[in-house]
Write a structure and sequence with these properties.
By secondary structure, the chain is α+β, with helices and mostly antiparallel strands. The protein has 2 domains: about 1-95, Ribosome hibernation promotion factor-like (Double Stranded RNA Binding Domain), CATH 3.30.160.100; about 105-185, Sigma 54 modulation/S30EA ribosomal protein, C-terminal domain (SHC Adaptor Protein, 2-Layer Sandwich), CATH 3.30.505. About 30% of the residues lie in helices and about 40% in strands. The protein contains 3 helices and 9 strands. It has helices at about 15-30, 70-95, 145-155; strands spanning about 1-5, 35-45, 50-55, 60-70, 105-115, 135-145, 160-165, 170-175, 185. Strand 3 and strand 4 (about 60-70) form a beta hairpin. The model has no long low-confidence stretch (mean pLDDT about 80). Required for dimerization of active 70S ribosomes into 100S ribosomes in stationary phase; 100S ribosomes are translationally inactive and sometimes present during exponential growth. This is Ribosome hibernation promoting factor. One of its GO terms (molecular function) is ribosomal small subunit binding. Belongs to the HPF/YfiA ribosome-associated protein family. Long HPF subfamily. InterPro entries: HPF/YfiA_ribosome-assoc, HPF_long/plastid, RHF-like, RHF/RaiA, Ribosom_S30AE_C, Ribosom_S30AE_C_sf.
Length: about 190
């Protein structure tokens, strides 16, 4: 597994890097057979250290965790505990589905845009036509998953919505967390 361990405006010593690699390797190997890479970023927010970790699995799923504490090692240990909990749930769900994925998740390229939310320019638009201002443009990947895997990926990432391609179909599908706590699924015809 490849590790990328870095700090945002703080120095990360070799002892911490070794600790992170050993502990994260133990946690990930326990619940995931073929992890590909891990990205761990340390930063400081006021008096607390923040640790953000992301682990990519060969199945195409991504697990991420974030924790903060007054000590840098405690921040990582909290993050590793959250990561372990996510991976344990992921493995339990895989066992519950009794379905092993024979090949990695197929990914499709797409463009992702971030639009400005400032509506002050609307008064200056002559014909009432509003062209949103693009703040950022980047490439993203859309996975081809089953609905159960999409819900699992959304929960692992802690995101409120996930766009995916349903296996065996061409259109895009969306799963999202509803206000009542349930999961919604949009499946176009």
């Amino acid at each position: 597994m490849r590790y990328q361990i870095s700090g945002k405006q703080i120095d990360i010593g070799m002892a911490l890097q070794t600790h992170v690699q050993e502990e994260l390797n133990t946690v990930v190997k326990k619940y995931a057979e073929r992890p590909t890479d891990a990205n761990v970023v340390f930063s400081k927010n006021a008096h607390e250290f923040v640790c953000e970790a992301t682990v990519h699995l060969s199945t195409g799923l991504t697990a991420s965790a974030k924790a903060h504490a007054n000590e840098i090692y405690a921040a990582f240990d909290g993050c590793a505990a959250k990561m372990e909990k996510q991976l344990r749930r992921y493995k339990r769900r895989l066992k519950d589905h009794h379905r092993e994925r024979a090949e990695p998740v197929e990914l499709f390229g797409a463009s992702s845009y971030i639009l400005a939310s400032d509506h002050a320019d609307e008064a200056q638009e002559p014909d009432g036509l509003h062209e949103p201002i693009i703040v950022a443009e980047m490439e993203t990947k859309i996975p081809s998953l089953s609905v159960g895997e999409a819900v699992m990926q959304m929960e692992l990432a802690g995101s409120p919505v996930l766009v995916f391609r349903k296996e065996g179909k061409d259109g895009l599908n969306v799963v999202y967390r509803r206000e009542d706590g349930n999961i919604g699924w949009i499946d176009p015809q």
